[in-house]
Amino acid sequence: MKKGFLVLILLALSVCVVGQGFRNPVLPGFHADPSVCRAGDDFYLVNSTFQYFPGVPVFHSKDLVNWEQVGNCLTRPSQLDLTGLYSQQNPELGWTNAGVYATTIRYNKGRFYMVTTVFPSRSHFYVWTDDPAGEWSDPIVIDFAIGSCDPTLYFEGDKCYFLWKQGDIKICEIDVETGKQIGEIHHLGTGLGGRYPEGPHIYRKDGWYYMMLAEGGTEQGHHVNIMRSRSLFGPYEPNKANPILSHFNMQMQDSNIQGMGHADLVQAPDSSWWMICLGYRTSGYLLHVMGRETFLAPVRWDKNAWPVVNGDGTLQADMKCATLPLVTMPQDPVRENFDYQKRNAPADSYNSIGLAMGWHSIGNPDYSRYSLTERKGWLRLKPSKATIDQVTSPTFVARRQTEFKFKATTLLDASHIGEGMQVGLTAYAAPLNHYDVRVERRNGTLYICSYVRLGAMGHVEQERKLDSDRVYLRVTSDKEYYYMQYSVDGKEYTTLSKMDFRYLSTEVIGGFTGVMLGVYAQGEDNGYADYDWVEYVTE
Asked: Other C-beta atoms within 10 Å of 110: how many?
């Protein structure tokens, strides 16, 4: 009996330990605009996804350090229609980040709400659910506010308030069931004068209303300011110690973590306060390729005082601080074997494809071109005329690059590739910026090459004949370069080309997303490609 009790204690300690530090970012890779809420002892977090579908991943945690993706908010075209967003652009030469901007998640009286903006229409809507791991509602559109972006919801008692940015920051009460305006719109100002004020959130503590927002643009000068008022509608007075979070200073000039901002605050069950925010890790001097990532910092918030982030308004990769009791969450597998994941989802939901969490397509995909059931244990992709060079929705599925150094490998069965088809593995930043290992069939012969897209230029390097229908495709990175490689035996790899990381960086190509590692099929619709697995190994 005593032995059994001791085993239970040891098991509990191995799963739930009071931590003395953690590594940032807590969600590495492209996880922009984080927002967090607490429901009992559980935390839930969402991120913006822009042009990727399904939209807005939902993560669950017990400790704010370890996270597991449990769902997506926007899985159906009825919730997020991305078709036509690029209709005014030349699909070969144009690029912009459209889609889902600046998500916020809130919990009130047993129900979860996620509010966001769709760009370029700049229309705001929210969805709700009682189960964040399940399907979410169809959108409730805010029809009285067509503004910039960055909406949030604030609940107080039986009232719900909608807060958004449209020139200045505005707020009004809404009917949470319908999204309709109740009462007048109040103007809360434009922040403290920094450019692009964004991500406003309101919190109530000690009889004060605190309004926190980011300013400075989502680049090196990004930072977080906070103001407070005795009235929800202001006027709000700024904290004399602003900014409360910034790496745009001499102290952090040599840190590879930059662009800190777009933050949210949450109080844990033990009454401690924490900040979730975005930032990015630079690959070279002020250049980053993995997009804006999700970071965590402790907050001291004494009664009637201002919140102080991590002691001095900065954070580190290796955080030396007490944490909540750490609870390990399941990790993404090193190898995704493309086993069908059966979920209780309607036919028009992306979940009906059966892909594991964390895989995304571009725009609203044609589900008929993706299959995990036609060949058990393989992902079958059927090509479309839309290519990954275009601002459209190609047959493409990808996961995030999360570390500087990695190897991404897949086993391709090319035996059913038709004439004029192109299939492969890509390090994809944008339609005009990606590095591929590509296979195609011409005149009955299979060829492999490295295809590099740099703006208006598409370059094919080292095209070679393939004597085998099965080939291993690999993209690796040593932080400075990406290498496009292949193997016929899975042991010896040949490098077809290498390319500098900077041509996939946000500072060079623009936009708000990070590198995605994916497989695709495009060209003539006269065959299909089968992928056995994708393995992703990091250092």
From this structure: 7
φ, ψ for residue 8 (rounded to 5)?
A: -65, -40
The residue from 33, 389, 436, 530 that is catalytic is: 33
Contact (Cβ atoms closer than 8 angstroms) between residue 86 and residue 96: yes
**Is the Cβ–Cβ distance between 534 and 401 less than 8 Å?**
no
- Residues 41 and 270 sit within 8 Å (Cβ to Cβ): no
Q: Of residues 135, 150, 198, 436, which has the active-site annotation?
A: 198
Determine the distance from the C-alpha atom of residue 350 to the mean position of all C-alpha atoms in its chain, rounded to a whole number: 17
Residues 298/272, Cβ–Cβ less than 8 Å: yes
380 and 370 Cβ atoms separated by less than 8 Å: yes
Whole-angstrom distance, CA of residue 136 vs CA of residue 56: 11
Backbone phi and psi for residue 352, each to the nearest 5 degrees, phi listed first: -70, -20
For 30-70, the pLDDT digits (tens) are 999 999 999 999 999 999 999 999 999 999 999 999 999 99
| Alpha carbon 527 to its chain's center | 32
Strands 293-300, 273-281: parallel, antiparallel or unpaired by DSSP?
antiparallel
Q: What is the three-class DSSP state of 369?
A: helix
The answer to whether the beta carbons of residues 538 and 383 sit under 8 Å apart is no
Contact, 221 vs 230, CB < 8 A?
Answer: no
Cα angle for residues 357, 507, 538 (degrees, 5° grid) = 40
Query: Among this protein's residues, is 131 annotated catalytic?
Result: no
Number of H helices, E strands in the chain: 2, 41
Say what the pTM is.
Answer: 0.94
Nearest-angstrom CA–CA distance, 529 and 361: 16
Assign 324 to helix, strand or coil.
coil
The two tokens of residue 160 are 């719900």
Give yes or no: 33 in active site: yes
Per-residue pLDDT tens for 371-413?
A: 999 999 999 999 999 999 987 899 999 999 999 999 999 999 9
Segment (H or E) for 168:
strand 168-174
Contact 447, 466 (CB under 8 A): yes
Residue 58 near residue 46, CB atoms below 8 Å: yes
The tokens describing 157, both together, are 């008692």
Residue by residue, DSSP assigns 334-379 as SEE-------S--TTSGGGG-PPTT-BEESS--GGGEESTTTTTSE
Distance CA 64, CA 332 (A): 17
Exposed / middle / buried, residue 418 (Cβ in 10 Å: 0-12, 13-18, 19+): middle
Task: Give CA–CA dist 8/16, Å, rounded.
Answer: 12
Question: For residue 169, is pLDDT > 50?
Answer: yes
Taking the C-alpha atoms of residue 145 and residue 124, their distance in angstroms, rounded to an integer, is 7
